[in-house]
Design a protein that fits this description.
It is found in: Cell membrane. One of its GO terms (cellular component) is plasma membrane. One of its GO terms (biological process) is copper ion homeostasis. It is a multi-pass membrane protein. The chain is an alpha+beta fold. Among the domains are: about 45 residues, no CATH class; about 90 residues, Alpha-Beta Plaits (2-Layer Sandwich); about 120 residues; about 140 residues, HAD superfamily/HAD-like (Rossmann fold), CATH 3.40.50; about 100 residues, 3-Layer(aba) Sandwich (Calcium-transporting ATPase, cytoplasmic domain N), CATH 3.40.1110.10. The protein is about 45% helix and about 15% strand. A seven-stranded mixed beta sheet has the order 16-28-27-26-17-24-25. Helix 10 runs parallel beside helix 27. The chain is elongated, with a radius of gyration of 33 Å. The chain starts with a helix and ends in a 12-residue tail after the last helix.
């Protein structure tokens, strides 16, 4: 009987190697390891067969329990249906498919590691990328080698089954709250309240009236209440500290875990060996307030989800057709069944069916491949594709997703060098050294006080470990940058991510494009000189300029007015040069003088842009377009030239050089007759000279220059033209605010450094009192989350105040319509 009881107790203590849950009587043994169910055993065997057992080195029992997983083999059969697949996927071509899954089981670093190594489980999986905040996994796979049904089944086998609900595909999926943290907080709160109740007699002289028996009973009850606090509520701190130590690093949870263990062990020593009251009530309060602070931080980060913020502020609009008339509307107002028009170089905003006979779509924004794909009428075109050719009309098939487009925009990762120089990385490096310093001070206080009073030494040791937490230091950077992003967004300046702010603060050279950037087509006056144009020729011109989104094409398009476009046989745009079309076997050219085969008639005493019209080698006429300089450009450049080196790159002739030098000063280095390749090469030369370059362009003929610059800002007056090559998009009406934006970005770094100083000051004062044993561990646990709150309040108030002083306090400065 005794052996049976011992064996039963041993089995109850055994935990599953995969998920960590206690094993019942039906414990399974495999590969010298214990598993609670066949599901966990299966997951382990799959990972072991594919040499992925490093997953278990990232955390103790990192997996999810498989007890509740269905064993039916056919439950994913519905994923073989073509209509269902079309509703789920983001993109598909002849070779690969892209899909985004919502996986609520994602909860730690080991989950991310395993899900981003799916390609090692099946050769048909190309890659996978995890968004931890949104609990999303974006998977690319080869549909000929693995079906969607098999992919989902594979993810389910390893414990990360996607949540697929066809009824709410268009709804935004938000990660649910971490219930485990709430459970632990509830347990700690319950135990802490009762432990304080049982400890009340210790604080009053009347306690002796209860007798020694009752006093000991209350102490033993506190011991029982401390067990769930120590072995359940504090497990996250143990796990995090163990992972850090195993990887030979020290994080902020190491001193907290040490303080918890020290307080618990010493309290047991006092109660059972010395007959004293111990500090278990302090331990309960410590965990309760620590978890309360952790919950506050989690809720605050959810509220200030910067990814959601810039998505909400980022303007994406489309051209919708209504009774054969165009109207530009926000993406959020486009519905399934709407007909939209997409021009050359514009992005397709939603999965749609092509209504034209054919189209050429560049999916480089989605796949990285820049080869246009030929599409026939009735074929689905996926969101993120870029139209190459004449304007096409599409029937929207799936609800547009602004979040999907911004996810694509933000996909490019920063290099290790950029991350190394970031303030976030600086905060992490400081936090590591800070934690080691705290440990030295804590052990020094323990050693000193132990020579006089061991109890005081334990009190000082735990107080130092708890009160000096670098949480505030780690929070200052993301909260400051996130608040700056929101302020920028309200002023019509939309950033790819918060790290762009740090890059903006480091630039020393500004490079401007001219047409469409410093000048605006809406402000330019236009007139035509030459032979009178027939209705047929006007229709041909209308069709040609409707093909292009270049500022000069837009200006000619407005001048033409409601002309019915002709049906062209062929049309092509040469970036930086002009348009070539074929109509009734005739070759029509519209563009710059350098683009023409014949020398056009010169027009003297005009310093603006000249767009020539040539039909079959005969020059018919010229469109004379004033530069249309944006209002306030002189003042803006005057403010910038005192702090930055300025360069102007233009594809036009240099006949406007003297005018621009008079308007903007000789401090600006002007370069004319610049092709897109010339612009790119010039920026690379500046970078080789050690310059930190910020390029401001319209995103059309200077996409390469925007991409290669440290920071690329696309200026646009028409938000239907989305520029994925840029790091930021600026409303053309707000270009004059550029000096304020650059100054505010630099001020943001000062706010972060000030918050560093605030955090160090708090910790220095806390250490001063803690080493003397003047503060209890419970008070330290209360003060620690208060320090995080103070940083959030400080960074928010400081950035808002700086925005107000710089005139960036607009609630909604953008005027997109």
């Amino acid at each position: 009987m005794e052996n049976t009881a011992t064996e039963k107790k041993k089995q109850q203590q055994e935990s599953c190697y995969h998920c960590g849950e206690p094993c019942d009587r039906d414990v399974l043994h495999f590969d010298k390891k214990n598993f609670c169910c066949s599901g966990c055993k299966t997951v382990y065997s799959v990972l072991s067969e594919n040499d992925l057992c490093d997953y278990y080195a990232l955390a103790d029992s990192p997996g999810q329990s498989q007890k509740s997983q269905s064993s039916r083999n056919n439950r994913f059969d519905y994923l073989s249906d073509r209509e269902v697949i079309d509703k789920l996927i983001d993109y598909q071509d002849k070779e690969e498919t892209h899909i985004t899954f919502f996986v609520p089981m994602i909860h730690c670093a080991s989950c991310i590691w395993l899900l981003e190594n799916l390609y090692r489980l099946h050769p048909g999986i190309i890659s996978s990328r995890v968004d931890f905040v949104k609990k999303k996994v974006q998977v690319k796979y080869r549909q000929e080698r693995i079906e969607l049904r098999a992919l989902v089944a594979l993810m389910a086998r390893i414990g990360y089954e996607p949540r697929i609900n066809l009824s709410d595909l268009g709804a935004e999926r938000k990660p649910k709250a971490d219930r485990r943290l709430i459970y632990k907080l509830a347990v700690a709160g319950f135990c802490f309240g009762n432990m304080m109740f049982f400890s009340l007699p210790e604080y009053f002289s009347e306690a002796r009236l209860l007798g020694k028996g009752f006093t000991n009973l209350f102490r033993y009850l506190n011991v029982l209440l401390s067990l769930p606090v120590f072995f359940f509520a504090a497990t996250d701190y143990y796990r995090s500290a163990w992972m850090a130590l195993k990887n030979r690093t020290v994080n902020m949870d190491v001193p907290i875990a040490m303080g918890i263990v020290t307080l618990f062990v010493y309290s047991l020593f006092e109660i059972f060996l010395l007959g004293q009251e111990g500090y278990l009530d302090s331990l309960g309060g410590l965990l309760f307030f620590l978890l309360l602070g952790k919950w506050y931080q989690q809720k605050t980060f959810d509220t200030l989800s910067f990814d959601r913020d810039y998505t909400a502020y980022f303007p994406v609009a489309v051209t919708r057709m209504k009774k054969d008339q165009e109207e530009v509307v926000p993406l959020t107002r486009v519905r399934v069944g709407d007909i939209i028009r997409v021009r050359n170089e514009e992005l397709v905003p939603a999965d749609s069916v092509l209504l034209n006979e054919e189209a050429a779509i560049d999916y480089s924004f989605v796949t990285g491949e820049e080869v246009p794909v030929g599409i026939r009428k009735g074929t689905v075109i996926y969101a993120g594709g870029r139209q190459k050719g004449p304007a096409i009309e599409l029937l929207v098939q799936k609800s547009p997703s602004q979040g999907y487009l911004t996810d694509l925009w933000n996909h490019a990762a920063f290099s290790k060098e950029q991350q190394k120089d970031s303030l976030a990385s600086l905060a992490n490096r400081i936090s590591g050294k800070f934690t080691l310093t705290v440990l030295v001070i804590a052990f020094g206080a323990l050693l000193y006080w132990s020579m006089y009073d061991l109890s005081m030494g334990i009190r000082a040791f735990t107080a130092v470990l708890i009160i000096t937490c670098p949480c505030a230091l780690a929070m200052s950077t993301p909260f400051t940058l996130g608040n700056i992003m929101r302020i920028f967004g309200r002023n019509g300046f939309y950033l790819k991510n918060s790290q762009v702010i740090e890059k903006i603060a480091a630039v020393d050279t500004l490079v401007f494009d001219k047409t469409g950037t410093l000048t605006s087509p809406a402000l330019a006056r236009i007139r035509y000189e030459g032979e009178k144009l027939s209705e047929e020729t006007l229709g041909v011109l209308k069709a040609m300029v409707s093909y292009s989104v270049h500022p000069l094409s837009n200006r000619v398009n407005r001048w033409l007015g409601p002309v019915i476009p002709a049906r062209l046989e062929q049309v092509q745009e040469i970036p930086g040069k002009g348009l070539i079309a074929r109509y009734k076997s005739q070759r029509i050219v519209l563009g710059a003088a350098s683009f023409l085969e014949t020398q056009p008639k010169t027009i003297k005493n005009f310093r603006g842009n000249k767009v020539y019209l040539v039909v079959e080698g005969v020059h018919l006429g010229t469109f004379l377009i004033d530069s249309g300089i944006r209002k306030g450009m002189g003042k803006m450049l005057g403010d910038l030239k005192t702090r930055f080196a300025l360069h102007l790159l233009s594809g036009d002739q240099d006949h406007e050089r003297q005018f621009f030098e008079k308007e903007w000063g000789r401090e600006m280095h002007m370069h004319f007759r610049q092709s897109p390749a010339d612009k790119l090469a010039r920026i690379q030369r500046l970078q080789q000279e050690g310059r930190q370059v910020l390029m401001v362009g319209d995103g059309l003929n200077d996409a390469g220059a925007l991409r290669v610059s440290q920071v690329g800002i696309a200026v646009t007056d028409d938000i239907s033209h989305f520029s994925p090559a840029s790091d930021a998009i600026l409303d053309g009406k707000r270009l004059g605010y550029l000096p304020k934006f650059l100054g505010f970005a630099r001020s943001g770094r000062k706010v972060i450094k000030a918050s560093f100083a605030l955090s160090f000051t708090y910790n220095a004062v806390g250490i001063f009192f803690a080493v003397q044993g003047l503060v209890s561990p419970v008070l330290c646990a209360i003060l620690m989350p208060l320090s995080s709150i103070s940083v959030v309040v400080f960074t928010t108030m400081a950035t808002n105040l700086l925005a107000y002083t710089r005139g960036l306090n607009h609630k909604s400065a953008a005027t997109w319509k």
